[in-house]
Q: What sequence folds into this?
């Protein structure tokens, strides 16, 4: 490792996932684990899903896809099959960026490779699950998703740790390629444990008329997540939208944001984040870079502080390199307005009921193209998270 | 039904209501007239018990219960309801959910929304991007679902176009049971500047408020005509009470 690599010293505190026992089949998961995965958006029966990828620690437990138009493989197999995936592997994320990319580049556990064939429009979502089952494990994952020309796919990714686990580290490298006219929706639910460190490193590239939609949901306590997916819009009229909903209970540190670089004319970018601190610390970042004429980009950060302690630090950034751009941002951080609570109290709700109604509304995720049953599922995740607080 | 006795109220440390007395019986609807800033909205907010409206002296009873210091939601459960003039936007809370929270009878909210041609708003966030008239309609539908025994209406006609005035007038008439003549149970207190409500609801009594004091009480139509003719100046001089 070169000397200038940023080092948190986290990696050395954990043991490689390869040293932990593997999960041979889904049936060996106990009830609490199943419940945990369900709350991360994962349907273990695969009902309503076109395919399932489940990795526990470093081993791939399930990797099945029901249609020919979608190729789903463990990344280790895809690397063998496609001669190292030269055009895609480590092309959007720099392997020597920091200790986490370095670690994954040199000690890969596994991850998924998904390729949707040109013109293939997949109705049901494909689900992927990265699960850490054992204590003190560092899971190092690399994922590559390729949406070929004119294809359409929704991926639901649930990430979780075993309910009894005390501490773990997840490193996830993800590279997304959205080709001409393709549409890729990526919904990620994080459901980590209280003493888990999470370091995703994500790069996205969107070509002409391509659409990348990201929905990110993290509602439970976690030691810390640091993530800053960056999308480059390189073809005219490409679009990227990031929609994040994050809750930080006491003891949780979230440093999460997105960057969209609008490099081609008439591209559009949108970053929306809603954060709630119940005593935890949140940095909500957003960075829009306009480099071509006719682009349109908007950034919105809304934060609610619902405890005496806790910090929400919104950092919205706009960077224009040419004149003919339309870029804007809004940011608002604070507590729930008293008049909203009183409005509901005047309809007969108690103060607690009024507060939770407003919070539920604040967290209400509006996701484009989500099947209604999944929308209901997500609503249930939001409602459940409310009960726990 | 509602009895107010020598009520003194402070808002942000400023004395706004100065010894209000009022009595509204079961089945009666009263109108409240007065210049901007005279304390009319403060009176409604105080009756509903909102924070920031501090009762310094006096007493309010509703259905015989002392409500002077009762929390807002308990007053609502006791049968008080209010239509807000400028309600806040509740992002992410659908009107459908809001009506469900209000309704006394299951599915009443949805039924009412359909009945009044407002069902295409059910999936919208409460008050987000609503026009003046849409806000009023949404407020009144919530009240219809809530079925309060006593309704407080703060300028229900403001921001409403002429076509919708008719619809809103009709809803208010129902809310206050002015469409029935026998055994009327519902009561109300309505703030109005334009007197429009008098075309739909036969109010039983009118009150004029100036500088936090009640100046006059009597036949609402007479009072409104007097105000139109001579302005509020005349009320200051008249002191009929």
A:
């Amino acid at each position: 490792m070169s000397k200038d690599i940023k080092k948190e010293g986290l990696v050395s505190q954990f043991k490689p996932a390869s040293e932990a026992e593997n999960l041979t089949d889904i049936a060996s998961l106990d009830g609490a684990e199943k419940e945990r995965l369900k709350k991360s958006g994962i349907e273990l029966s695969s009902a309503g899903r076109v395919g399932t990828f489940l990795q526990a620690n470093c081993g791939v437990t399930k990797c099945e896809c029901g249609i020919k138009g979608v190729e789903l493989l463990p990344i280790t197999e895809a690397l063998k099959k496609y001669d190292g995936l030269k055009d895609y592997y480590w092309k959007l994320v720099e392997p020597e960026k920091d200790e986490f990319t370095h670690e994954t580049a040199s000690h890969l556990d596994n991850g998924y490779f998904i390729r949707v064939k040109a013109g293939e429009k997949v109705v049901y979502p494909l689900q992927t699950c990265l699960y850490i089952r054992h204590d003190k494990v560092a899971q190092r994952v690399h994922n590559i998703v390729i949406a070929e020309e004119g294809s359409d796919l929704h991926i639901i990714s649930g990430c979780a740790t075993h309910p009894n686990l005390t501490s773990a580290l997840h490193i996830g490298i993800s590279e997304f390629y959205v080709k001409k006219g393709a549409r890729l929706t990526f919904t990620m639910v994080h459901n980590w444990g209280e003493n888990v460190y999470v370091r995703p490193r994500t790069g996205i590239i969107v070509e002409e008329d391509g659409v990348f939609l990201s929905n990110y949901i993290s509602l439970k306590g976690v030691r810390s997540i640091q993530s800053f997916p960056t999308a480059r819009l390189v073809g005219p009229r490409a679009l990227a939208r990031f929609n994040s909903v994050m809750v930080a209970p006491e003891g949780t540190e979230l440093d999460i944001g997105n960057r969209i670089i609008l490099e081609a004319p008439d591209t559009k970018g949108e970053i929306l984040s809603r954060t709630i601190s119940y005593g935890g610390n949140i940095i909500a970042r957003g960075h829009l870079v306009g480099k071509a004429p006719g682009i349109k980009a908007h950034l919105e950060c809304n934060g609610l502080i619902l405890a005496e302690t806790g910090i929400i630090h919104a950092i919205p950034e706009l960077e224009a390199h040419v004149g003919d751009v339309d870029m804007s941002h809004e940011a608002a951080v604070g507590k729930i307005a008293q008049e909203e609570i009183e409005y509901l109290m005047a309809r007969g709700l108690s103060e607690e009921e009024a507060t939770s109604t407003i919070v539920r509304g604040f967290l209400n995720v509006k996701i484009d193209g989500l099947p209604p049953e999944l929308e209901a599922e997500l609503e249930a995740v939001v409602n459940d998270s409310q009960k726990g607080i | 039904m509602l009895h107010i006795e020598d009520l003194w109220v402070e808002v942000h440390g400023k004395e706004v209501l100065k010894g209000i007395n009022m009595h509204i019986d079961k089945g009666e609807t009263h109108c409240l007239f007065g210049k901007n800033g005279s304390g009319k909205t403060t009176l409604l907010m105080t009756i509903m018990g909102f924070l920031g409206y501090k009762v310094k002296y006096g007493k309010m009873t509703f259905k015989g219960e002392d409500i002077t210091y009762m929390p807002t939601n308990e007053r609502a459960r006791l049968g008080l309801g209010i239509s807000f003039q400028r309600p806040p936007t509740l992002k992410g809370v659908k009107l459908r959910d809001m009506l469900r929270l209000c309704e006394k009878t299951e599915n009443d909210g949805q039924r009412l929304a359909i009945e009044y041609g407002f069902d295409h708003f059910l999936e919208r966030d409460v008050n987000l991007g609503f026009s003046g008239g849409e806000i009023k309609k949404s407020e009144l539908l919530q009240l219809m679902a809530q079925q309060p025994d006593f309704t407080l209406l703060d300028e229900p006609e403001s921001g409403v176009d002429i076509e919708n005035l008719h619809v809103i007038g009709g809803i208010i008439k129902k809310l206050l049971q002015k469409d029935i003549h026998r055994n009327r149970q519902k009561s109300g207190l309505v703030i109005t500047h334009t007197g429009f409500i008098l075309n739909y609801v036969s109010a039983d009594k009118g009150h004029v408020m100036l500088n936090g004091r009640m100046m006059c009480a009597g036949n609402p139509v007479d009072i409104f005509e007097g105000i139109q003719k001579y302005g509020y100046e005349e009320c200051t001089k008249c002191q009929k009470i």
